[in-house]
Every structure is written in structure tokens, then in C-alpha cells.
Amino acid sequence: MTDTVSRRERAAGTGAALKQAAREVFAERGYLNTKITDITAAAGRATGSFYNHFAGKEELLEALLKDMLAEADEAIVDVGGHDADFSKVSAIRWHVAAFWRFYQQHLPEMVAVKQAAMVDPELGRRLQRIMADDDSHMVDHLAHLPNPPAEPLVTISAMNALMEGFAYTWLVVNPANGQTISDEQAIDTLTGLLHHGLIG
Asked: What is the pTM of this model?
């Protein structure tokens, strides 16, 4: 029994080490330039051990995304100030700030998701489904609006595209003119656009 438990613990440790190594290598080389051997070397594990946990780099990325979203959901429960009434600008701003900080915290993974979706549309659809499951709770937030959208999931996808594109521009690419933006300015800009778009 003890040997079985220790094997499970070792396996869990290897899985966690591979995920952490993937984050680090993605940050350094990007998802597209990362090989499985890069991840196992960074984790200090044998290459064969990777396939005991993941079918490939794509499955590892899916696991990272699920972990990130679960962690974000727990943070929302633990942190005060969450308001589901999107008729209030303060509620929209809270969600924008949470997204902005989430994107900053998980920058290598968010860029990896974007790169992976560009080269593998099927993987992109799977990643989108994982994120869409997390979006379903936002439908209730839009129900508080004076004129709730007839198709709330379409509105949510537009909101997500605006925030993700804006975050990618300022946190990853950076405008060619070298201009920077503070977190507060970014959050205020997105909040204003979303508030006016939702309330009119």
C-alpha cells in the first residue's frame, strides 16, 4: 500500500514538474518553438516520462489552461468585491481588472494558447471550448442590463475578444511607437468601452 501511494505521489510530482517546466520554457522560447525534450530537460525528467502524463504538447497546454481557469475561479470566491450586476460600472471594472491581472500572471500560457490556435484550428476549438465553459456564468451578469442582449454568449465572446486583443497588444506586442500603458489606464480604457457598449 505504501509503495502504491509513493508511486502516486511520484507521478503527481512529475506531472506538476512538467507543467511548471512548460510554463518556463514557453516564456523563454514560445509555444511553437518548444519541443517536448525541452520541457522534460527543464523538468529534470526522462523524455519517456512525459508520455505517462500527456499524449503530446497540445494535451499539456489544455491541462495548463484548465488549471489556470480553476485557479481563477477559486480566486473569485476568495476575493471580495465581486458583483454580478453589469448595469454598474464598478462591476464591469472589477471583472476587467480580474481579466487583466489574470492575463499578466499567465502571459506565457495565454500567448501559447494564441499560437497553438493559429497553427492547429482543431486544438484552437478545444481550447475555446474549455474557456467557453468558464464563460457560461457571465450570462447572469448581462441579465441585469436595462436591455439584456438577445444572445448573451455572442456579447460575451465580443467582450472577451476586446479584452484579449487589447491585453495582447499592450502586454505582448507593444505598439511600434514604444508607448507604454499603466495597468490602471488599461483597465479604465476597457471598462469605459465595455460600459458604454453594454449600457449605451
From this structure: 0.83
> Tens of pLDDT along 11-63?
558 889 999 999 999 999 999 999 999 999 999 999 998 999 999 999 999 99
CATH 1.10.357.10 domain extents, the chain: 57-199
Structural contact between residues 84 and 141, judged by C-beta atoms closer than 8 angstroms: yes
Question: What's the CA gap between 20 and 25, in Å, rounded?
Answer: 9
- Positions of CATH 1.10.10.60 in the chain: 1-54
Summarize pLDDT for 85-139 with one digit per residue, the tens: 999 999 999 999 999 999 999 999 999 989 998 888 888 888 888 887 777 778 8
Could you say which architecture CATH assigns to the domain 1-54?
Answer: Orthogonal Bundle (1.10)
Distances (CA, A) of 109 to 10, 30, 103, 115: 25, 9, 9, 10
DSSP calls for 170-192: IIII--TT-----HHHHHHHHHH
115: nearest Cα among 124, 104, 107: 124
Instruction: Give the angle subtended at the CA of 55 by the CAs of 50 and 57, to the nearest 5°.
Output: 75
Superfamily (CATH H level) for 57-199: Tetracycline Repressor, domain 2 (1.10.357.10)
